Amino acid sequence: MKIGVLALQGAYIEHMNKLEKLDIETKEIRYSRDLNDIDGIIIPGGESTSIGKLLIESNIKAKIYEVIKNGLPVWGTCAGMIILAKKIHDSNKTYIPLMDIEVVKNAYGRQLSSFTTNQKIKGLQNGFYPMVFIRAPYIKTTQNNVETLSIVDEKIVAAKQNKILVTSFHPELTDDLRMHQYFINMINNE
Ligand code: GLN
């Protein structure tokens, strides 16, 4: 199995390090041609507006939309969740709008108010998980077959729709490998 990590901006190296700890081959995704031989892709946290601009400048946006639409498993973390949303609250921007969610950006305040909390995630081995939030978005509403996986302070922070997984928090910034394992299992259809 080989997992690509969108390497335009943000915390992509941290994701690659986690996957390598799980003996998964990784690949930095920067151009359309990089999308050919991967089994899944991670869109990392960072700054959604910058990632959005770079998707256009790198000429990769149409191809990445197409491969995910055609079923390539994807996991968006934090800014990556915003990138995949069909609707961004109070905005008419979208980036790779493939998931039936409406997200609210920067919902957890400024950088200073970033925090970690242990919360339950549905389907995760041993339940509780250390969630790191950094100016994180949350999911305001879901539609169709989106499955809610975790709720923190009455806000949806993890969800799944078919082969699209999103989390508001940053699993690449903890020592816990279970969320990366969850994505690998999802790719394996488990
Ligand atoms: N607030 C950022 C955005 O709007 C997301 C923050 C993050 O990825 N840590 O893109």
From TrEMBL:
Species of the source = Vallitalea guaymasensis
Instruction: Please give the InterPro entries that the UniProt record associates with this protein.
Output: Class_I_gatase-like (IPR029062), PdxT/SNO (IPR002161), PdxT/SNO_CS (IPR021196)
Active-site residues, record numbering mapped to chain: 78 (nucleophile), 170 (charge relay system), 172 (charge relay system)
Keyword Lyase assigned: yes
Q: Give the binding site residues for L-glutamine.
A: 46-48, 134-135
> Which EC number applies?
4.3.3.6, 3.5.1.2
Task: Tell me the subunit arrangement.
Answer: In the presence of PdxS, forms a dodecamer of heterodimers. Only shows activity in the heterodimer.
Similarity comment text for this entry: Belongs to the glutaminase PdxT/SNO family.
Pathway(s) of this molecule: Cofactor biosynthesis; pyridoxal 5'-phosphate biosynthesis
- Relate the protein's function as given in its record: Catalyzes the hydrolysis of glutamine to glutamate and ammonia as part of the biosynthesis of pyridoxal 5'-phosphate. The resulting ammonia molecule is channeled to the active site of PdxS.
Superkingdom of origin: Bacteria
* Protein name from the UniProt record: Pyridoxal 5'-phosphate synthase subunit PdxT
Keyword check for Lyase, yes or no.
Answer: yes
Q: Which residues form a coiled coil?
A: none
Pfam family, any one: SNO
Q: Its GO biological process terms?
A: L-glutamine catabolic process; pyridoxal phosphate biosynthetic process; pyridoxine metabolic process
Q: What does it catalyze?
A: aldehydo-D-ribose 5-phosphate + D-glyceraldehyde 3-phosphate + L-glutamine = pyridoxal 5'-phosphate + L-glutamate + phosphate + 3 H2O + H(+); L-glutamine + H2O = L-glutamate + NH4(+)
The lineage, from the top, is: Bacteria, Bacillati, Bacillota, Clostridia, Lachnospirales
Q: Which UniProt keywords apply?
A: Glutamine amidotransferase, Hydrolase, Lyase, Pyridoxal phosphate
GO MF, any single term: glutaminase activity
What is one term from the GO cellular component aspect held by the record? glutaminase complex
